[in-house]
Amino acid sequence: MKIAMIGQKGIPSRTGGIEIHVDEISRRLVQRGCEVNVYCRKSYCSISEQGKYNGINIKFAPYIKSKHLDAITHTFFSTMKALFSGCDIFHYHALGPSTLSFIPRLFGKKVVSTVHGLDWQRGKWGGFASKYLKFGEYASVRFAHRTISVSENLVDYFYGKYNKQIAYIPNGAEKHDKIETDIIRSKYHLDKDGYILFLARLVPEKGAHYLIDAYKQLKTDKKLVIAGGSSHSDDYEQQLHKQAGDHPNIIFTGFVTGKELEELFSNAYLYVLPSDVEGLPISLLEAMSYGNCCLTSDIPENAQVIGDMGYLFKKSDVNDLSEKLQSLVDNVEMVDCKRTGAQDYIITKYNWDKAAEKTYELYESLVNKR
C-alpha cells in the first residue's frame, strides 16, 4: 500500500500532538511494508531536505505561510502532489485539512480522516475560521470512507450527531527512564521536585492562564515552569508573560525538545494540564509515561486518560485549581501514591504498536473492498 499522510505540519517535529502521532504511526506502517509519504511544511521540520526518515518518504509541498492559509494551502498542494504519485490511500489529519478530502475521492482514491479534536472550539480561531472548521467536522465523516478518532468521547459525539460509527484508535505512549537534572539546573536553576510543570502549546484552550492565576495564590517555594511555544498565538503568549509579571518563580522556557524536555518530565514534582479543549493530549500521556503525578481539568478527554492515577479539578475554575494545587504541594504522600504505577498504567492503556496495527487493518479493509 502507498499512503499519503496530509494535514500535519511535518516530521520530525514536536510542534504538536498531530506531528508526534503521524511520526509514530508512519514509522510502524513502514515496518509493516507500507510505502508512506508524509507531506510536510519545510519551515516546521527539523530536516531541510526531502528524503528518507526512518523509512518514511518526506515530501515538501508549497503553502502560504499565514495563520489562516497555512494549513489549507499546504493541504491542497499536498493532495495534488499525492494524486500524481500513485498513492492508494489518502489519510487526512485534523478538521481543516479534511475539508479537501473530497478531491481524491473524485479520482477514485480511498480516503481516511483522523479527528484529533474539535478544532472549532479552540480559542485562537475567529468567526469565519471556526465556521470553516465546523464544516471540516462534517467533511471528516461525510467525505472520508473511514473516520478515526483518538478520543473515546469524540466517538460518542460523532455517533450522536451524525449517526455514524467511527473507529477509535488512541495515541500511544512509551516507557521512559528518568534522568537527573543537568541542563535545567544550569539554565533555569531547577532541582528535582522543585517545580510544577506545564508543558504544551501556548494557546488559549490549554489553559496556562488559569494555572498562572492559581499559582499566584499558592504558599509554596516550588517554581512554576511554563514550557512550550506559541502556535499562531503570539498575542496570547505575550498575555501570559504580562500575567506572570515579574514573579521570580514563574519560568517560561519556550519550546523545548531533546534532553531538556526529558529532564523537565523526569524531575517535576507535579504535571498540570488545565485545558478547556482536548482530543487525546500526548503531553499528558508522556508526563505519565515518566511516572509523574498529574493534575488536570475534569473534561472527559483528560479524565479518561488518567483514570484513578491522577487528580482532577473543575474546568476553568481558578479557585478549585489553586486549592487542589495547595493540597498536593502540602501533601507529598498524595503525589507519591499516584506516581507509583502511573507509568505501567499508561503504557499498557495507550500503545503506539497497537495504534499502528489498528490503522493498518483499517487500510486493508478499504483496499480489500475493491
Any overview of this molecule?
The protein is α/β, with parallel strands linked by helices and 370 residues long. The protein folds into two domains: 188 residues, 3-Layer(aba) Sandwich (Rossmann fold), CATH 3.40.50; 167 residues, Glycogen Phosphorylase B (Rossmann fold). It has 16 helices and 14 strands. It has an eight-stranded mixed beta sheet, sandwiched between helices. Strands 11-10-9-12-13-14 form a six-stranded parallel beta sheet, sandwiched between helices. Helix 1 packs across helix 16 and helix 8 packs parallel to helix 9. The longest helix is centred in the C-terminal third of the chain and has 17 residues. The two termini are 13 Å apart. The mean pLDDT is 92.
Give a nutshell description of this structure.
The protein is α/β, with parallel strands linked by helices.
